[in-house]
Design goal:
The protein contains 13 helices and 4 strands. Strands 2-3-1-4 form a 4-stranded antiparallel beta sheet, with helices on both faces.
């Protein structure tokens, strides 16, 4: 019997849950959690997504993810695959680490987003010594929201949750937000069973097919490849055919890597589709080429960063 297709929406925020296979601890030590958060941060930067809340426990994890139109399956595959490679190499094992595919649920209202944020942040209640002190759990974003801990990785986008609790400008409500948010979490937890709370909110918000919050800044991920090629070639002042078939010198490799990354992030193309557009790139090497394109934007010449930011600006809704 075929498994049910994952429900997706181009403007949705998601609650993501990943669990380990029964005989494996997903995180054996803090260094494993640190590595996973690092990969999560990199993926969020690479694909221009936002993380609103997270909690990493020994055998499962929760993420409140705003992909801003990017495909969540591609996002989570990027993060989890890199973690599996790290984990199996470190512990000299092979095989699955995660229990099947990740779970996802669309958060279709502001209230539902707040409830799930509270739910995620209260998960450490069953960790030894954390009951009633959940905000002090190191691998949860709760302490960051309450101002008890710095977001050293800069992994969180706190503006969305903060804006749901306080209407004043963020720069003036940090302390007020922390007080209000702590009270909200305590109030919601008074229901006792957090799963019942989440299910109740899902029912009240109309289920997964309710109205999607569209107040956030979104990115159009369905730009045509031809539009990307035209814009890049015009900014680089070179014919499109040359961009498509650049040589193997350093400059040519840079341009091809940059274009491949643009096609991946802004057009949502898979590696095979990118190979069909850019001549001379193998599917197996396309992932590495896209990584190179990402690095160029962050550490390469200013021209690549400017072109990418211009495209994001042109296509942001």
């Amino acid at each position: 019997m075929p498994r049910r297709a994952r429900e997706k929406h181009c403007e949705a925020i998601y609650h993501i849950i990943c669990r380990s296979v029964s005989e494996v601890m997903l995180f054996r030590e803090d260094a494993d959690k640190d590595f996973y958060l690092g990969r999560l941060k990199r993926a969020a930067d690479k694909y221009k997504c936002s993380i609103y809340s997270y909690c990493l426990l020994d055998n499962h994890l929760h993420i409140q993810l705003d992909p801003k139109g990017y495909d969540i399956s591609k996002f989570m595959h990027s993060v989890n695959t890199s973690y599996v490679i790290y984990y199996n190499k470190k512990y000299k094992r092979h095989g699955h680490v995660f229990q099947g595919r990740f779970q996802s649920r669309i958060l279709n209202s502001d209230r539902y987003n707040l409830v799930v944020s509270a739910y995620i942040h209260m998960n450490p209640k069953d960790v030894k010594g954390m009951a009633g002190r959940e905000e002090h759990y190191k691998y949860s974003s709760y302490g960051v929201y309450l101002g008890l801990r710095k977001d050293t990785l800069k992994i969180l986008d706190t503006s969305f949750i903060t804006g749901l609790v306080c209407t004043e400008p963020v720069s003036r409500v940090t302390k007020k937000f922390a007080e209000r948010y702590r009270e909200f979490v305590k109030k919601e937890m008074s229901y006792g069973n957090i799963n019942e709370l989440k299910d109740r909110e899902l029912k009240e918000s109309g289920g997964d097919r309710g109205e999607i919050n569209t107040r956030r800044k979104m990115i159009n991920r369905e730009i045509s490849p031809s539009k990307v090629m035209f814009y890049v070639s015009s900014r680089l002042k070179m014919p499109e055919r040359e961009v498509l078939s650049m040589g193997r010198d350093k400059k040519g490799k840079e341009i091809r890597a940059f274009v491949a990354y643009m096609l991946r992030v802004l057009c949502g193309l898979g590696y095979r589709q990118i190979c069909e557009i850019l001549f001379g790139i193998s599917e197996s090497g396309c992932s590495l080429i896209c990584e190179k394109g990402y690095e160029l934007i962050n550490t390469g010449g200013r021209i690549y960063r400017n072109i990418f930011n211009e495209m994001i600006g042109l296509q942001t809704a």
